[in-house]
């Protein structure tokens, strides 16, 4: 009779013989399995020292391959740059990366040889899973990318941004009013992250959809920030092994599920907003100039499908939210720790603008110290230390080193922004280093001498951030008005960490609170005088 209960044997010669046979069989097969596994994994463990047809070697780099670099990857890259030099290579699974840590090399490759080093890697997670081949800033060169960039750039040129100046100006005023009211005129400390997020989101929502949100606690604000953070975590250049080990793309991992969910979320959120714009137009309502309206009017001519509409507006909107919001948060984390810098900014604002009106966009050229503060925040706390990597479209040899076709090219911004030759005492927050630099970031990026460029936070070459102009305008209006309005104080019992941060690829400070103390009587009149804006 068979029993479902386990059989228990006592020790003895028979048991020992059986165990020996089983152990021998198991160990033999296990050995074969392990040997096979090791040999199958060798290509993913050790570095592949490729050479060109002429025998030219790759740039030097670490001897092993890596599946991913998760937390604080810039620290690893900085260490490798110090070990292997300003141009080194590293294998992530089956993908070769070449890392640039010097501005001169960045200009040589991304600008001078821009025809070779301006494409993008077609990542499984970012391009195929989340954005379905419709990544405005992350797609390889091709007809779809050219079409999307042409449509988007209608709203990102300097002339186009001027037409939205009234929107950016209004949102900066609303940001300050929200901080003023919600802090009870400085009596309550605030975590300003959601306010910074709404400011950045409303600017992009107006440009994208001709609409805005009324509250920093709006579900749309929360979802947009959540989606931006999730996107950055899933798609960072070192975030997950699924992009570097193709076999993992067939396994139902949690990362893959998160990517598919984010794709559906983009369709749901931005598709609904797109349809809302269409409904307004169909009803005869006058919809202000915006990206969604342009897509609706030209969609048939451009042969855009539903996913084109959703993904183009999603990427356009989210691309301008995370970086701007992150930089504003880093500014608020930094400025309370430097009362002398804050006082110097207040003096400039009082002297140039006065206390009876806000600073406006046209005042930027007359406020060099405010501009210097913004540049220094971007240098010392860039929201992404690696930006969006480039990809080589053909084999190339540089200074006796071989860079094969399809190599991913990464700008190591942390090392570049802490280069002592370019930035003396690079770990110090010192806006004075930018006094005398009267160029905008866009103008600085065009300088012939890369060692004179202000910073590389917006990338470089032909794929420099297309939203650079609007980001500069947003940052100036927000930061100048916060400084005009408030003394920003840290809480004595809650120190702000300037080393730790949240996020893998995108960076925001760890949660913190500050106190917004109104500076003078003109603040109350300015806040009370804000007029509502209708989109």
TrEMBL record:
Q: Which GO terms describe its cellular component?
A: membrane
> What are the transmembrane regions?
25-46
**What pathway does this protein act in?**
Secondary metabolite biosynthesis
- Gene Ontology terms for molecular function: heme binding; iron ion binding; monooxygenase activity; oxidoreductase activity, acting on paired donors, with incorporation or reduction of molecular oxygen
* Binding sites annotated in the UniProt record for heme: 465
Q: Where in the cell is the protein located?
A: Membrane
Cofactor annotation: heme
Q: How does it sit in the membrane?
A: Single-pass membrane protein
User: Which keywords has UniProt assigned to this entry?
Assistant: Glycoprotein, Heme, Iron, Membrane, Metal-binding, Monooxygenase, Oxidoreductase, Transmembrane, Transmembrane helix
Family that this chain belongs to: Belongs to the cytochrome P450 family.
Q: What is the protein's name according to its record? A: Cytochrome P450
Organism placement in taxonomy:
Eukaryota, Fungi, Dikarya, Basidiomycota, Agaricomycotina
